[in-house]
Design brief:
- The chain is α+β, with helices and mostly antiparallel strands.
- Among the domains are: 100 residues, Ubiquitin-like (UB roll) (Roll); 132 residues, Orthogonal Bundle (Fumarate Reductase Iron-sulfur Protein, Chain B, domain 2), CATH 1.10.1060.10.
- Strands 2-1-5-3-4 form a five-stranded mixed beta sheet. A two-stranded antiparallel ribbon has the order 6-7.
- The protein is elongated.
Length: 352
């Protein structure tokens, strides 16, 4: 048996509106979207609400519930007290179309201006190869369902409408960070574009976008702050500035990312430097998140598989943070990564 609960729902359009009061029956296990559907079925059939999957994966039912940006399909009624009034309003940052439906086209306009993924020249889609560490580095940002709750709660555009032309918002900062971390992305100006065209400098990292993300993406800590750090390194690091003064541009762009290991031979007899693309590398060539990565697949073993241990692979998952001339302290023949056979390899393991 359900209980009667009090709701306040904003009704209106772009010309204006008001908050209306409703008493609705609430059953165990229901979410706010269920209540909106019951209102449409019993009291206000013309109530406008956008929704699609009702599973927290499409991001359509974004709205503000008691002042907090949330997905109505993921907000359970059990989180409110029985005598608590639940107030439902549309997203405040975007223009209202009608009732709880807002015009979020601003986000799609920003998406169209974001440069797309650009693979290395001459590399076909079926030839893409990435190390698992590179996949994991940006996989978190791929969970975004584009509910635009982060865009709505960001005070840069929420409180200042005139910032919208110059500010892309946290959703597209994580897109820029994801592509900047992508080892096969050939564009080297992601950081410059984020600073000059996406308004990265407007963000003062209050972490409000992270707090409302339904996918629990650490937008600020894992995307925006590292992106800001790379912009600072690129443009304001005195060592980088000095390097630009000492070396010509063609010397900086032509330097292989692993020049210090250019003489090291790969397992198949090739030169390690030859496995890297010869495109431009930007201002921070050879640093983590550089676009310069192996453009060819690593050699397969006799069993047709890749090496199970990166320590034995002739291509590392990413540049070493300690410098390009650092090598693993043990020779490959002494690295044991398989389970030893009983008694057979006992002495060798004791030696290691």
């Amino acid at each position: 048996m359900g209980t009667k609960r009090h709701f306040r729902v904003w009704r209106g359009d772009q010309s204006g509106g008001e908050i209306q009061d409703f008493d609705v029956e609430v059953n165990d296990g229901e979410v706010v979207l269920d209540i909106i559907h019951r209102l449409q079925a019993t009291q206000t059939p013309d109530l406008a609400c956008r929704w699609n999957c009702k599973a927290g994966k499409c991001g359509s039912c974004s709205m503000e519930i008691n002042g907090m940006p949330k997905l109505s399909c993921m907000t359970r009624m059990s989180t409110f007290e029985e005598d608590e009034t639940v107030t439902i309003t549309p997203l405040r940052t975007f223009p209202v179309i009608r009732d709880l439906v807002t015009d979020v086209s601003y986000n799609y306009e920003k998406a169209r201006t974001t440069p797309a993924f650009a693979p290395p020249p001459g590399l076909k889609p079926g030839e893409y190869r990435m190390q698992q560490v590179d996949v994991e580095r940006s996989q978190e940002f791929r969970k975004c369902i584009e509910c635009f709750l982060c865009q709505n709660t960001c005070h840069v555009v929420r409180d200042h409408e005139d910032n919208k032309p110059a500010f892309s918002g946290p959703r597209f900062f994580i897109r820029a960070a994801e592509l900047d971390m992508h080892p096969l992305d050939a564009r080297t100006d992601r950081k410059d574009y984020a600073r000059d065209h996406q308004g990265l400098g407007y963000c003062n990292i209050t972490k409000c976008c992270t707090e409302v993300c339904p996918e629990h993406i650490k937008i600020t800590d894992n995307a925006i702050i590292p992106m800001k750090e790379r912009v600072v390194d690129n443009k304001y690091d005195p060592l980088v500035w000095l390097g630009r003064k000492i070396f010509r541009r063609d010397q900086l762009e032509g330097q292989p990312a692993h020049a210090g290991m250019a003489s090291a031979n790969t397992a198949d007899g090739g030169n390690l430097a030859q496995s890297y693309t010869e495109g431009s590398t930007g201002d921070a060539a050879g640093t983590p998140f550089s676009s310069r990565r192996p453009s060819v697949a690593p050699a397969l073993g006799p069993d047709g598989r890749l090496d199970v241990a990166e320590l034995l692979s002739h291509q590392s998952g990413g540049p070493s943070p300690f410098g390009d001339d650092q090598t693993f302290p043990l020779p490959p023949e002494r690295v044991v990564y398989n389970h030893p056979s009983p008694g057979k390899d006992e002495d060798e393991h004791k030696a290691l």
